[in-house]
Amino acid sequence: MLEGPNLYFPRAAVKLTLDIGALATASVPLALRFAARLGLENARPGEPDSGFRQRFALRAIGWLVRAVAQESGTSNLAVRVRPTSDPHQVVVAYPWVHRERARAMGLAVGAVLDAIPTAEVSADQLSVAVSAAAETVAGAEAGEPPHTLEPRIPVVAVTGTNGKTTTSRMVAHIGRGWGKVVGWSNTDGVYIDGVLVEPGDYSGPSGAGRVLAHEEVELAVTETARGGILLKGIGLTHNDVSVVTNVSADHLGLQGIDTLDQLAEVKAVVPRITRPEGWAVLNADDPRVLAMRWVVKSQTWLFSRDPDSPAVRDVLGDGGRATTVIDGWLCVLELDADPDPLVELVDVPMTLGGLSRYNVENALAAASAALAVGVPREVVIEGLRSFLPDAEHNPGRMNCFTVPVLDGEVTVVMDLAHNEAGLEAMFEIMEGIRPPDARLLLGLGVVGDRSDELIEKLGEIAARDADVVAIGHKEKYFRGRTPEELEQLMRAGAERVGVLAVPAYPTEVGVLSALVGQALPGEVVGLMCHADREGVYEWIEAAGGVPDSAEALAAKVRAARAG
After folding, report:
1. How many CB atoms lie within 10 A of CB 154?
2. What does residue 70 show for φ and ψ, rounded to 5 degrees?
3. Fewer Cβ atoms within 10 Å of its own Cβ: the N or the C terminal residue of the chain?
4. 525 C-beta neighbours (distance < 10 Å), count
5. Which superfamily, per CATH, for 155-386?
């Protein structure tokens, strides 16, 4: 039961996942009888289990839902039918205004499909099954309406595969600098004016609802993840500013999303519900994100590291805006105006002096969103300068520490790095701060609900780019897999680049302790941390480690460049 705008409709909808095995394998005469009962004329169902039969089944299921709706008293029902990677499963969606009746119709449609398991089913039996389904729906209680919220305050909604948490935190930080009471929700929880009030994963509609339920909140910043859109819908009727950071391989093979193009379609739900007078902030350097400008009703504000991007020229020509980098300055572009330089990248701590291109993009996105929602220019500038890559401002994302070891110190870089793009961004930072001839050591870890291919790829990247790699498990995130299974996949990826015998430790703290224990002065230890962030912070503090200030990080970057 999708409570608000979703992949299928801009309003609340029911999503059915149906087993159509009986229809896919039924004889041609039976398939024709089924089509005739639904009023589907000139049907060509094709042979059982053929591609033609699958296409016929998609069309027939749509007609079935409409037939049950019409015979139960609902006319002109919009229906969307989509295939999945399983030829015997389809996804069907239709809007709803009464919860129990809509649910009853979903169950009734399933009952019709259950009534055609064999070729002996007669036309009369099929007709009775459809009529019975309609009667069931007509007799069902109406139930409650959707709980989709109508925002009373400005909302900035952030989505994407990488960078959405950092970007949403930056926007919230800038908003607080504006003097507003900011509520924001993300994968860590719900924050009100900088205070965590409800821990947990609130990157779906429940997070937005909790933020808007606080009467003192003046600006809402919501992180919207793929899972929330697919399983619950977006709990808001609209947003004022949307941000799409990027689309890269992650969570593929789940909930019927098997390709990057399909994933982009899911992410596009967020800018699609941006108000016409609002702004959709899109990554011009990601072609799938850029293509979303054609499905939004709002104005378009691009961000790009390339000021000469053709996309930037096109959007400016259409009256849009863009944020980019010129001569090392973060600038805003408008048509027929000189660039407006906001701040030098060296003065934006999150970019590590411009070293982290992913955080350059996050800063561009956050500045664009803040300006688009009405934050004054000078407040945006100060917010970019004061937002730090530390446990206070951006916990778990590119946090850097100095930890003492025998005869010196090592740097620890801690990040979620949950997919290929995230891990490559982490190595970008580690490379940028390592002194000449120093090694990179990585604590590799994965979440169990990723595909085998992605887990192997992470193992390959880790072994390719690190001098030393070891596995640190995330016990709370095995998600149906065993540690041995995950180790096998990660090691298989490492073996592709000739790295054998990768050791494994049961926890993130364990692998960090082991790697720091063998690191030499000046070397850089990275940790892909997700399960026990607080435990890692405690271990670093107990080991005498301290967070790197912006000045300390800049000094490390300069030293690495000089070397």
Report:
1. 19
2. -65, -40
3. C
4. 28
5. Mur-like, catalytic domain (3.40.1190.10)
